[in-house]
Amino acid sequence: MTDNLEGRVAIVTGGGRGIGKSICENLSGQGVSIIVADTGGDIDGANPDASIAEDVASALVSPAKAFAKSVASPEAAEEMIALAVSEFGGIDIVVNCAAILRDGLVFKGATEDWDSVIETNLSAAFYLIRAATPVMRQQFKDGRGTGDSYDWGRIVNIGSTAGLYGNFGQANYASAKAGLFGLMRIAALEMTRSNVTSNYVAPFAHSRVTDIIEPANDEQAEYKDRAMKVSPDHVANFISYLCSPAANDVSGQIFGVRGREVFLFNQPRPIETITQSNKDWTNEELAEAVDTNFRDQFTKLETDLEAFNTEPIV
Fold first, then answer.
1. 63 Cβ neighbours under 8 A, 6+ residues apart
2. Pairing outcome for strands 254-258 and 261-264
3. Do the Cβ atoms of 304 and 164 come closer than 8 Å?
């Protein structure tokens, strides 16, 4: 590790275990001061344990503080930003990695589970971005770090291919991860004048999420076996790149990281158009036009587990 990120300050939610912990360790090794935010709870959010975040923070090589409260409130976001500013002098990097799972088929899902997952996995990210960006904008005006034009600002939403492809039983989780994509794009657009980048990273790595996958078929079983072999350190390496000066102009993008593979995802844009200018469409006319012009380009109805069921490069 080098100290090429020396002086920067990061908040990593979900930083106590798995991918979040690897991100904390990587950034800390490069001189970043870190707020490790993690309740230490189970994968469904129950049974918090403050020692999880505290142990990670105490083991990091750069200055670090633990934040063991739930991040799923506006008050928690404001408190994390205040802690970063008071302890370390600012906030430069926000990594939204906190997530819980409460799976259930769409026709069975409990309202309470939906609300809890959306609040933790999506709303918490919005609260933190909303609290961090005014500070980042002021740091840009003040020339923080460089004395010239501030360019340390980074927002990284840790998403999931479940939010891009879908997966059985994960209506709440996938919807939250899809929402992180939209939130990322808005932050990228609105913060460009302050030289703050915003990106979305879908990780393929061994984590508590992969641990609890219950394969419904042989393909999903193979996917889980492969995922268990992929270290989260590869994801952390890519986050480190996004936070580096080399990625000052990389913003608004969707990436995937699987071992030593890095994917750039396309984003929803029109790929074909049908037009009828002289009158309204009838159902029959639409059926013919859709079949002729669209059908061959329909997106395949497959889960993320099926789409990426190939051997990773580890």
1. 33, 34, 87, 88
2. antiparallel
3. yes
Q: Tell me which residue range forms the domain holding 120.
A: 9-267
Catalytic: 86? no
Does some domain include residue 300?
Answer: no
b/e map 165-204, b = 16+ CB within 10 Å: bbbebbbbbbbbbbbbbebbbebbeebeebbbbbbbbbbb
**Residue-wise pLDDT tens digits, 195-251:** 999 999 999 886 777 666 666 667 667 766 776 678 899 999 999 999 999 999 999
The reply to whether 300 belongs to the active site is no
CATH number of the domain within which 95 lies: 3.40.50.720
Side-chain-side CA neighbours of 153 within 13 Å: the count stands at 29
pLDDT digits (tens, 9 = 90+) for 41-78: 999 999 999 999 999 999 999 999 999 999 999 999 99
- Of 127, 150, 165, 173, which one is the catalytic site residue? 173
Annotated active-site residue 177? The verdict is yes
Answer yes or no: are the C-beta atoms of 116 and 102 closer than 8 Å: yes
Burial 259-282 (b: 16+ CB within 10 A, else e): beeeeeeeeeeeeeeeeeeeeeee
**Into how many domains does the chain fold?**
1
Catalytic-labelled residue, pool 21, 116, 177, 223: 177
Report angle CA 293, 294, 300 to the nearest 5 degrees: 150
Amino acid at residue number 20: G
Which residue in 189, 87, 67 sits closest to 128, CA to CA?
Answer: 67
Nearest Cα residue to 120 out of 203, 206, 196, 37: 37
Location of structure tokens 């961090």? 132
Distance between CA atoms of 215 and 251, rounded to whole angstroms?
A: 35
How long is the chain?
314
In a domain, 3, yes or no: no
Chain-centre distance of CA 20, in angstroms?
A: 10
Active-site position among 22, 28, 116, 160: 160
The predicted model scores a pTM of: 0.94
